[in-house]
Amino acid sequence: MSGESTPEQELERELLSRTALGVFRLNGQFLAVSEDLARPAGLTAAWWQVVGAVLHEPLPVAGIARAMGITRQSVQRVADLLVTKGLAEYAPNPAHRRAKLLRPTPAGRDAVRKIEPGHAALAARLGAELGEEGFAEAVRVLERLSEALEAVAEPARVPEP
């Protein structure tokens, strides 16, 4: 009987699968929209994401990766490209000699500023489509889902048979 599952377990599996597929689709949609918004400013979605992460305060690459939930290596590649393109620069980190801080250059800030009108227009269209309360609820649900997944997936292990 170890191979059988209860209706509750079946429902949980279905809900997890539907959630994952929905989030993957949503991620693809956000990436496509972000690419469209960033392109006229000379950025990619990934470049915008990394520059945006350090607009308010410089951060080490590992800190950016943690905040965005992606690998340090992928952030490092983008950060190095941004520095090469003159959109960001590395600065000394008083808290850690080897982990330099990434901060935007004036050109990086200007590029992000060029995105703001399109970003604001998209926010207004989404707000109109969802309604203010619906939009706020969508944010709460996504944040709660992220917190719950973080709490239960440390690391996700496959149980032994």
Give the helices and strands, then pairings.
Blueprint: H1 7-38, H2 45-53, E1 59-60, H3 61-68, H4 72-84, E2 88-91, E3 101-104, H5 106-130, H6 132-152
Antiparallel strand pairs: 1-3, 2-3
Folded structure, characterized:
With 161 residues, this protein is mostly helical. It has one domain (7-150): Orthogonal Bundle (Arc Repressor Mutant, subunit A), CATH 1.10.10. It has six helices and three strands. Strands 1-3-2 form a three-stranded antiparallel sheet. The longest helix has 32 residues, at 7-38. It holds the Pfam family MarR_2.
How would you describe this structure in keywords?
161 residues; mainly alpha; Arc Repressor Mutant, subunit A; 3-stranded antiparallel beta sheet
Overall shape:
globular
Q: Report low-confidence residues grouped into runs of 5 or more.
A: none
Distance between the termini: 13 Å
Query: What name goes with the CATH superfamily?
Result: Winged helix-like DNA-binding domain superfamily/Winged helix DNA-binding domain
Gyration radius, in Å: 20 Å
Q: What is the name of the CATH class?
A: Mainly Alpha
Overall pLDDT level: 93
- Derived from helix and strand composition plus strand pairing, the structural class reads mainly alpha
The biggest sheet amounts to: 3 strands, antiparallel
Helix content: 55-70%
Treating each run of at least 4 consecutive H or I residues as one helix, how many helices?
6
Portion in beta strands:
5-15%
Q: How many independent structural domains?
A: 1
Q: Can you tell me the CATH architecture?
A: Orthogonal Bundle
| Strand line-up in the sheet with most strands | 1-3-2
Order of helices and strands: HHEHHEEHH
CATH fold-level topology: Arc Repressor Mutant, subunit A
Query: Based on DSSP secondary structure assignment, what is the total number of beta strands?
Result: 3
